[in-house]
Amino acid sequence: MLIVSCGFFENKKANKDPLYFAAQDAGFLKDSFIKADIERFNKKIVSSKYLESLMVGRVSVSVSEIAGYYKNNITQFKRRDEEALVLLFEQQNKNDAIKIKNTIDRNNFDSERVSKTIQKHSPRRVFLEKKSLKAGLADRVFKTAGESFIIQRSDGFVVFYIINIFKTGTAKELVDVSDGIQAKILALKKHALKEKIKDSLYTIYGAD
Asked: Which pTM does this prediction carry?
């Protein structure tokens, strides 16, 4: 005797696409035009996956390429507004927020105490544009580099530490834009490789 738990039927039902099975029961999938569309769609999926498999490990971006792109396109990385580089210690209770601020204010930023505080609380390192902030907060953020302050939010207290302030028109550092440059070069290389692979396959199998 076969015993099947209720969970079997529930899982089977949960894995179904009701629209698909309704279409199947109605004989919709037997329609010649639908069959042709499904076949074209499946071909596109197989082609795309196969192309991806041919590209694995064949595209990379070197450090020198990133540096070269940065140098040759430096105007792209000019700041359009004043920016502040800030550490945000978020979702702190009041006592911890005060301790963090006191530690930062009473010690050099590169001191062991500050380093331990950063490791413990894992703050976010962010660039804030002046125009994106409310007037009151912008005044505090862009007052003086090296200062800290605390604000209260609905989810707790936030300690701001202003690492540096940058004027409009200054260039962003390579270290701060390298990830974006790498992604852009990688995308261009992948596109070029895709076209190259397609062209080589067209010479063998012909184009549709």
From this structure: 0.69
